[in-house]
Amino acid sequence: MRALGYTKAHLIDQFNIQEIEIEKPQIKETDLLVQIKAISVNPVDTKIRQRKSSDDSTPIILGWDASGIILEVGADVVDFKIGDEVYYAGELNRAGSNAELQAVDQRLVAKKPKNISFTQAAAMPLTSVTAWEALIENKSLELHSRPTILIIGGAGGVGSMAIQILKAKSNAIVIATASRVDTINWCKELGADFVINHTNDLKTELEKINIKEVDAVFSTTHTSDYLPKLNEIIRPFGNFILIDDPQDLNISHFKQKSIKTTWEFMFSKSLFNYHPEEQGRVLSEIALLVESGKIKSTLKQTLEGLTTANLKKAHETLESSKSFGKIVLNVN
């Protein structure tokens, strides 16, 4: 089968992901073999491409968002059948979705929302699960009340889903950060109650909307730029949640306010086999929210064809930090 892979880690200006022919994946008893119809690209793809080389010359196939049709089911699969239309985010330690076919654990998979295309569906899994785990599954967030939650990077892939999930599943007042007209409008369109400019001092921006402190900050990008002053805007016993990788995570200044800190990594459940079935369940609930019109796909750009040129363009766009929403490649 056809796939896109590489063996040596590299930067974008040395882009060396190539079209390759590999054997059809062999499925395990609890696996599905999916004919991939569309994939989306996430920041994790670019980070792994920059940092990870193959240990034994086996090509590394990136990609952790896909939608498609089930071609085969393992002997122990009970919830899916051949022909089902599905969507999912895969595992870090298995071949990814930048291919025509992929073997994936059924526990990570859900049936695709019926009212959207494969292209729209492929934009959603990884970011939906990330936002859900960070916010809805976070037991320290008092979502039953009316918390005020600031999302840093509201127009990004995860931020775009976080806005919608919070509005659909809680009474939260959602404040998103954005700085350009198009990204500000995007956040408002997704349901943000307020949008503030992250290029300015966040405390000053919050004061403009008569908010002194927030109950929680969900930081999806450039955390190191904001971290030193976040204690000024998070209330005592509030929450700080992050998903990116700051070089230094010094939170000693959080101690006086007893600010609770959570580092969300959506691959943890599959890496450690810690209730991975919860991710399939989350995607099933997201599908229902999509079908009921409470959440929409965050697709913003579509590229036709699983080609090295299209994949490079997607990686370049992500690394420019100027994209918003999600970029999807149609495979078939």
From TrEMBL:
Q: Which SUPFAM superfamilies match?
A: GroES-like (SSF50129), NAD(P)-binding Rossmann-fold domains (SSF51735)
- Please tell me whether the keyword Zinc is annotated for this protein: yes
Give the record's family classification: Belongs to the zinc-containing alcohol dehydrogenase family. Quinone oxidoreductase subfamily.
Taxonomic lineage is: Bacteria, Pseudomonadati, Bdellovibrionota, Bacteriovoracia, Bacteriovoracales
**Keyword annotations for this protein?**
Metal-binding, NADP, Oxidoreductase, Zinc
Return the InterPro entries for the record.
ADH-like_N, ADH_Zn_typ-1, ER, GroES-like_sf, NAD(P)-bd_dom_sf, Zinc-ADH_QOR/CCCR
Show the Pfam families listed in the entry: ADH_N (PF08240), ADH_zinc_N_2 (PF13602)
Record domain Enoyl reductase (ER): where: 10-329
Please identify the protein, giving its name as recorded.
Zinc-type alcohol dehydrogenase-like protein
